[in-house]
Hints:
Helix content is 40%, strand content 18%.
Amino acid sequence: MTASGSRSVATPGLALRRLAQNVGGLLRDTAMLPLERDLPREWLVVRLDRGLADTPARAPGLEEFLRLPRALPTVLLALDRAARDRRLQGVLLRVGAAGIGWAKAVALARATRRLRETGKRVVVYADRTGNAGAWLGAQADRFWMAPEGRVDLIGVRAESPFVARALERLRIRADVLQVGRYKSVGEVLTRDSMSTESREALEGVVDSLYGTLIEGLASGRAASNGCARRWVDEGPYLASEAREIGLVDDLVYGDEIPTRLASFDGDEGAEPEDREARLVGEGGYVRISRRRFRWRSLWDRPDRIVVVPVVGMLRAGAGSPRGVVGVLRRLASDESVAAVVIRVDSPGGDPLAADLIWRAIRKLAERKPVVASLGDTAASGGYYVAMGATEIVAEPTTLTGSIGVVWLMLEVGGLLDEIGIRVEAVERGAHAGIYDPTRARTDDERARLRAQVEQLYRDFVEKVASSRDLETERVEAVAEGRVWTGAQARAHGLVDDLGGLDRAVLRARELAGLPPEGEDPEFVRGYTLPLRELLRAEPVAREDRGPKLLCPIWIPLR
Length: 558
């Protein structure tokens, strides 16, 4: 897929907008200069112990006020600026037991390495943490823990509950139609164990993620794959045990951190100084460390890079013009936007919503470059929307693919009969009761639904082939609902490049003909409905009963 690129010269309307931005930027930086100059900062503190979200909150500062997870883009922006800040000595990463995500952990490990390459010190601190914290701790100059903390470095586990026997006891029957041998999302309802295909796909993903974890530990303080595997196999650890094997450097109480950082010089035996290090939080640091004002030519070509999040389940109505589709359409006609990055972190959902978003991305890509950046999971419907972009960038640990379709429904007639409930209906039309959960589908109804599921699968495969410029046979070989990691997907031609959001932004700039360095990307912070639509909204929306594009695999990293 190709994009026409940006105009070479700004229009009068864009020139006026630039003039307003120049004046606003000058006033803002004039007001911020005293704070930026006088704010003491030696160590940047980044809180990861509440988890890590994929996109910024709708209002700046909301994360801290409501104790929400930090946003990955904001954290990476702070770390990038810290690497170039001569006033900072280092960065303290506070990790915990909250989930971070495989793709996010890779991005953080990469940022940590860059910090150390620029001469900044990196300290990781945890009260209690797991695989993700151990991985980041292994990459740091120092890994400190609370004296009575613990490290749950225990490896990778993916599990599925199978409830078929429980449903049978309740006299509930699951009716599942799927296309794709590996599309195992319905198995939890119809089987009491994994199918051969499901286990094959899951083992392939777990092997890849486990290998990445081992490499991450080995590239740091473990020093070898053998040592890293031994650490994993012998876990979990008390903090004192982790220190004995060399995973943790020292046991430190939280109130001792400022003093320990003030005396940090790489010599673990150095005596602490009496003073405390001057710390600055990530949120405040991002606000005061922005690039200094520079006058932008009014007639330069468009240079805005906008990041649009597509996060969470794609539910019926998600493709409405009031949501992401409307944002994409406005960006297509916005002359100040040079390129767009679509940040996808979704297991899929409603096929119609996925198709409408895919269509909007594809139409946008006809006018300007669009790069899809895949997060922890961008599979099934999540991959469907991403393939409309000019290019796709994924982390090696992203879960993607899952090109398949499933339809499932629970029949509760037996349960209702057991508890004395009877449902009667008057119908006109051969298929008026096709979605009735109190009875089984007839052979004719199931054949009708099966045909729809198969047609949706064929459409999915053909759109992948067209969007990715692949032969249909090649797509079919990697489809069948199978989930791949980003590294595997690249080898199969499903993604173009490996990297994080920063890599996607860089590619967007390159495709738009812009220099690598420029203004920070702008983030669309959620979608809102007009007040009248909110007032009309039903308290509980009815779930669509049609086929679904859903990824059956989810593997957390804690």
